[in-house]
Write a structure and sequence with these properties.
This protein has 2 domains: 226 residues, TIM Barrel (Alpha-Beta Barrel); 108 residues, Elongation Factor Tu (Ef-tu), domain 3 (Beta Barrel), CATH 2.40.30. The protein is 30% helix and 25% strand. The protein has 11 helices and 18 strands. Strands 1, 12, 13, 14, 15, 16, 17 and 18 form an 8-stranded mixed beta sheet that branches. An 8-stranded parallel beta sheet has the order 8-7-6-5-4-3-2-9. A two-stranded antiparallel ribbon has the order 10-11. Helix 4 packs across helix 5 and helix 6 crosses helix 7. The longest helix is centred in the middle third of the chain and has 18 residues. The chain is elongated. The mean pLDDT is 96. Bound molecules: pyridoxal-5'-phosphate (PLP). The site of pyridoxal-5'-phosphate has 14 residues, from strand 9 and helix 9.
């Protein structure tokens, strides 16, 4: 098989999804399956749907279009604010989009009318992480605007924490979101169908909270795909953390000094040379690099240590011997390494669903 390649176990993704969908259902929360790390892969989307997600969500309209083209069923939400240059595509392919700008709402409204459609809108509220969101004091005005625009239906409100600044979802900020939902409904005499509390970083809050208030949806990506909770990156109990494995092939294996020689200036990626002389080390070079993945996000097999990486080389130290040229090793990926591997054309994707193939 060709290398580098990302082997993807769809059964593990389905299991992770089913487990979290069931755990959250107890708290009255539905899961929207976030596909942005999987580049609109229809097989991965279908695994999420088999695991019980209520709908699919992606940050890029291109991925939503790819899933529609592959006839993936279900509601699809664009969870990044639409670019005005893409409103026609958004209205054509996404059922709902997340929004924070009046100008965008107005363009979505015109696009929906020309397409003879209604487009759902979730207004995102800024609760401290300083990424997207309407400031809480401005939310009521935006609700008024959303309701005034023909072709749009206000589906609800949402927020996103932990992504830019690492702000932790808490009983305080989640209560603020619930409070806004209540006050919007009271002021405008409407019912909000969705109160979308956040992403995988909300899991600890949900599972530990005395009450989840009005929150009735989470949008989960990393937790479903990698089985980890992003605030601490600890594995979630009962989930697989190894649904994705990156295989790379050895192209050089030699014992070399641990320190470079000659005059030292900047390296290609600004990395500093090692400071400590460890004596000669078995240095293995894998044919995988920054064009394929995020080397900092790779976990090598036991006994191997990643020393450095360039665009095309991953340099690994091994103990007393090395894998020979032509051998392969399996690396576990974090979210950053996964996203880069999924988006790299150099990395083959090999999908397996043992349970389906066995039938
Ligand atoms: C990426 C993203 C998510 C999913 O985040 P995970 O940490 O992968 O669960 C949810 N909501 C929004 C708005 C996002 O951009």
């Amino acid at each position: 098989m060709s290398a580098p390649r990302l082997e993807i176990d769809l059964d593990k993704i389905q299991h992770n999804t089913r487990t979290l969908v069931d755990r959250l259902a107890f708290r009255g929360i539905a899961v929207s399956g976030v596909t942005k790390a999987s580049l609109g892969s229809p097989e991965i989307a279908l695994a999420l749907l088999r695991g019980g997600v209520r709908g699919l969500a992606d940050s890029r309209i291109e991925n939503i279009e790819a899933m529609r083209l592959a006839r993936v069923p279900g509601a699809m939400t664009l969870i990044r604010s639409p670019m005005i240059s893409q409103v026609d595509r958004v209205v054509a392919h996404a059922d709902v989009s997340f929004n924070t700008e009046l100008e965008v709402l107005s363009k979505l409204s015109s696009a929906a009318i020309s397409a003879g459609k209604t487009h759902g809108v979730v207004l995102m509220v800024e609760l401290g992480d300083l990424r997207e969101g309407i400031l809480p004091g401005d939310v009521h005005d935006m609700v008024g605007e959303a309701l005034r625009h023909p072709g749009l239906t206000l589906e609800g409100i949402g927020t996103n924490l932990a992504c830019r600044s690492g702000v932790v979802p808490s009983s305080e900020n989640m209560a603020e979101l619930s409070g806004l939902a209540d006050s919007i409904e009271a002021t405008f005499g409407i019912k909000l169908r969705v109160v979308s509390g956040g992403n995988s970083a909300n899991l600890s809050w949900v599972l530990g909270a005395a009450s989840v208030g009005r929150v009735n949806e989470l949008r989960l990506g990393e937790a479903l795909l990698l089985g980890r909770e992003p605030l601490t990156r600890q594995p979630i109990e009962g989930l697989y953390a190894d649904a994705f494995t990156l295989y790379a092939e050895v192209i050089e294996a030699k014992q070399k000094p641990s320190l470079p020689w000659g005059e030292i200036a900047q390296s290609a990626f600004g990395e500093l040379p090692p400071a400590i002389d460890r004596g000669p080390v078995w240095q293995t070079i894998f044919a995988v690099g920054r064009q394929d993945t995020d080397p900092e996000g790779l976990q090598p097999p036991k006994g191997m240590e990643v020393l450095a990486a360039s665009s095309d080389h991953l340099i690994v130290a091994q103990g007393s011997s090395s894998l020979p040229a032509g051998a392969e090793a399996a690396f576990q990926v974090n979210y950053s390494a996964l996203v880069r591997a999924m988006t790299s054309n150099f990395v083959a994707k090999v999908l397996a669903a043992p349970s389906i193939q066995a039938r």
